[in-house]
């Protein structure tokens, strides 16, 4: 990976190389994640590492990277520990050009792994020439806009928002948000040939986020029997983080406020959601044990320099996309056939209209 090729700074290049190192080490890795609180950007996490050690253990690690002549290593160690504690992560890492032994000593004192200048100088072997950089990818996404569904934001914003949820919303709320993003980009893939490549990359990337989210959720139900696990998942997919009891309380309040609506009318709106499709898939052990690796595969495809069409991907990954299509009530044939249509050919207007009504998304002009 050449700096000139990607037109990125020295610091950005170092972040790419370290990301590739941790990808090669078996982690799921996200670069440049904004930590947000109530629509306020608090800080950036240079790298977010997610690892799966067993069916009940997960690792979440924040990495701080400074490739400067004056790296301020002690300050970065304190900052990285503050972020780790704030996000309730398992550990933190500081990558610094500083090679002084005292930095390692201070890092050990504060449970911080130090990647020093000697380590960083060996990272050239972690170049992935067939992989786009974060900057190349986000520049592509920034050229497209959502005029209604996401408040006139560009697609880079949607991607960044999905990444941010991995820091603090590895729960049913984060899962449902990822589903809404996926529904939007599935529609764009089918109805907008000019943006199909970017839409497909975002489908891959946000699907990887969704799989990491459900993998983290499942660690807490791994030892439950199948019936209890299915019940937990069913309630989560249908009622979100509040669960059935929490939603019942909200409905009770809503009934009192509305005056003319019964609790049953509120519950009916939830009955139409085909959550059994998700529950059946994510409760099976043969699927849950593969979620982490599937997430890594989808992330890799999202960044691949030459886009791999969904009709040509491995069968298990194709199965995950098919699951999502079924949940969204989108015909599999319509989706996969769209990649056989010329980039200059639109679907018939009546089919576009039908899909928009199904997914309740907006047009991108």
Structure description:
By secondary structure, the chain is α/β, with parallel strands linked by helices. It folds into 2 domains: 3-126, 3-Layer(aba) Sandwich (Trna Endonuclease, Chain: A, domain 1), CATH 3.40.1350; 134-223 and 275-359, no CATH class. The chain contains 18 helices and 5 strands. A 5-stranded mixed sheet has the order 1-2-3-4-5. Helix 8 packs antiparallel against helix 18 (349-359) and helix 10 (226-239) packs parallel to helix 11 (243-258). The longest helix has 23 residues, at 196-218. It is globular, with a radius of gyration of 22 Å. The chain starts with a helix and ends in a 6-residue tail after the last helix. The model is unreliable at 1-5, 245-259, 342-353 and 355-365 (pLDDT under 50).
What layout of secondary structure does this protein have?
Blueprint: H1 3-6, H2 10-24, E1 28-37, E2 40-52, E3 58-66, H3 73-87, E4 91-96, H4 101-109, E5 112-115, H5 117-120, H6 134-141, H7 155-168, H8 172-191, H9 196-218, H10 226-239, H11 243-258, H12 263-271, H13 275-282, H14 285-288, H15 291-303, H16 315-327, H17 332-337, H18 349-359
Parallel strand pairs: 3-4, 4-5
Antiparallel strand pairs: 1-2, 2-3
Helix pairs in contact: 6-7, 7-8, 7-9, 8-9, 8-18, 9-15, 10-11, 10-13, 13-16
Protein name: Restriction endonuclease
């Amino acid at each position: 990976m050449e700096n000139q090729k990607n037109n990125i700074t020295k610091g950005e290049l170092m972040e790419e190389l370290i990301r590739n190192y941790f990808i090669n080490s078996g982690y799921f890795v996200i670069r440049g994640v904004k930590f947000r609180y109530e629509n306020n950007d608090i800080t950036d996490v240079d790298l977010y590492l997610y690892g799966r050690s067993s069916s009940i253990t997960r690792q979440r690690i924040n990495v701080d990277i400074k490739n400067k002549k004056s790296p301020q290593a002690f300050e970065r160690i304190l900052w990285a520990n503050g972020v780790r504690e704030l996000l309730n992560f398992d550990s933190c890492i500081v990558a610094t050009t500083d090679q002084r032994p005292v930095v390692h000593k201070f890092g050990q004192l504060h449970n911080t792994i130090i990647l020093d200048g000697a380590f960083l100088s060996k990272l050239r072997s972690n170049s992935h020439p067939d992989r786009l950089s974060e900057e190349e990818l986000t520049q592509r996404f920034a050229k497209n806009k959502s005029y209604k569904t996401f408040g006139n934001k560009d697609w880079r914003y949607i991607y960044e928002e999905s990444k941010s949820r991995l820091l603090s919303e590895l729960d049913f709320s984060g899962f449902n948000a990822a589903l809404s993003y996926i529904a939007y980009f599935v529609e764009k893939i089918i109805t907008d040939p000019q943006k199909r490549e970017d839409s497909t990359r975002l489908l891959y990337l946000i699907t990887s986020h969704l799989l990491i989210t459900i993998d983290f959720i499942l660690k807490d139900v791994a030892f439950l029997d199948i019936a209890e696990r299915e019940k937990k998942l069913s309630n989560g997919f249908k009622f979100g983080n509040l669960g059935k009891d929490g939603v019942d309380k909200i409905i009770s309040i809503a009934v009192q406020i509305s005056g003319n609506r019964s609790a049953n009318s509120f519950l009916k709106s939830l009955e139409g959601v085909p959550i059994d499709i998700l529950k059946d898939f994510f409760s099976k052990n043969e699927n849950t044990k593969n979620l982490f690796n599937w997430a890594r595969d989808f992330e890799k495809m999202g960044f691949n320099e030459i886009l791999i069409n969904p009709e040509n991907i491995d069968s298990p990954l194709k199965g995950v996309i098919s699951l999502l299509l079924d949940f969204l009530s989108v015909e599999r044939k319509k989706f996969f056939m769209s990649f056989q249509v010329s980039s200059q050919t639109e679907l018939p207007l009546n089919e576009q209209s039908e899909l928009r009504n199904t997914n309740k998304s907006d047009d991108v002009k």
